Amino acid sequence: MVKIVAEENTNETQLFDLVIPPGVPRSIIYDIQEKFNFEVVSRRERMQFANMDGDERDLLAFRGKKEIVEQAYDYMMAELEKYVED
Hints:
Helix content is 36%, strand content 36%. The chain is of the alpha+beta class. It has a single domain (4-85), classed as Ribosomal Protein S8, Chain: A, domain 1, CATH 3.30.1370. Strands 1-2-4-3 form a four-stranded antiparallel sheet, covered by helices on one side. A hairpin with a 2-residue loop joins β1 (4-10) and β2 (13-19). α1 (26-36) runs antiparallel to α2. The chain is globular and about 40 Å long. The two termini are 21 Å apart. The model has no long low-confidence stretch (mean pLDDT 83).
């Protein structure tokens, strides 16, 4: 599951986090960070699947403005789909 969540307000600009699901290849993470000029941050999230239900883990997230985060989400999903097909 991919989440976009509000994070903080800085200088009247609200920032959002795009939580990166475990297992996303590093090449895709690096590509998105460079393409969208994101800050990569650590975010503690409660896991909600399989035998990890309720466990908390530190996950990576991209942090930025909402419209850019939404574009990055679409890009990440397309890249993951291509990756899986290969």
